[in-house]
Amino acid sequence: MQSVPGPTPRGGDVVKRHGLMTRLWHWLNAIAVTVMLMSGLMIFNAHPRLYWGHYGANPDPAWLDLSQVNGGIPFPGAVTIPTDYSLADARLWHLAFAWPLAAALCGYLVWALLSGRLRREIVPTPRDLAPRNLRDDIAEHARLRFPTGAAALRYGVLQRLAYSAVLLILLPGMVLTGLAMSPAMDAGWPWLVDLLGGRQSARSVHFLCAAALVGFVAVHLAMVALSGPINGMRAMLSGRYRLPLEAEQAE
Asked: Mind listing the pLDDT tens digit for each residue in 110-157?
């Protein structure tokens, strides 16, 4: 998959880093998740409380209550879809992007599994999770030292853990909890609601998964900005990536 001659690319070489499937998945996922997060915040504004169990209403104790924030509308129009309060429109936006996201997630996971990408590049190996490797990767990130040369083509253990969590836990969790909140799915698959501890528990887990995704996106964008935003953006648009210079090359 290299675009330069030689068995081992070096710093400064332009190589192919992301295939078409990965790039399509990335941008479809970015658009769908953004719209769903913003419309989800508007839906949350309609009842800014979270509960555990099957039931939840104003008299019930909530583990999270933002009803006293900003006059009961905790999230302003600048971060919601639509910008003006409308629960009906927010639900339409949310559902319009929910099914494409779920279908794309299933398709990408099947492709990543069959192609071996999930095993080779994303899920961490036992060796990756060795305490020494974890310690070293955390230290490198804390010092903002990013891989150079051919090493930049491989995900580090923290990246593997983060991408595995998003692909195998957070996004599937969003889909399953979203289904559990649907009255139609409640009637057809009541076992799913019971598995998640009730509709209100599903709503709480849905919110927590969304919050974790926001945290992931914030860290991801920060790392892209610090490691070279133009090079990183080009890699995700065209697939081409210029390997960072190694220490001996930069001297």
From this structure: 999 999 999 999 999 999 999 999 999 999 999 989 888 888 888 999
DSSP per-residue string spanning the chain = --SSSSSS--TT-EEE-S-HHHHHHHHHHHHHHHHHHHHHHHHHHHS-EE-SSS---TTSPPSEE-TTGGGG--S-GGGSSSSS--HHHHHHHHHHHHHHHHHHHHHHHHHHHHHSHIIIIISPPTTTTSHHHHHHHHHHHHTT----GGGGGS--HHHHHHHHHIIIIIHHHHHHHHHHT-HHHHHH-HHHHHHTTSHHHHHHHHHHHHHHHHHHHHHHHHHHHHH-HHHHHHHHHHSEEEPPPPHHHH-
Q: Residues of the chain with pLDDT > 90: what percent?
A: 71
Taking the domains of the chain in order of start, what are their residue ranges? 14-250
pTM of the predicted structure, to 2 decimals: 0.89
CATH superfamily of 14-250: Transmembrane di-heme cytochromes, Chain C (1.20.950.20)
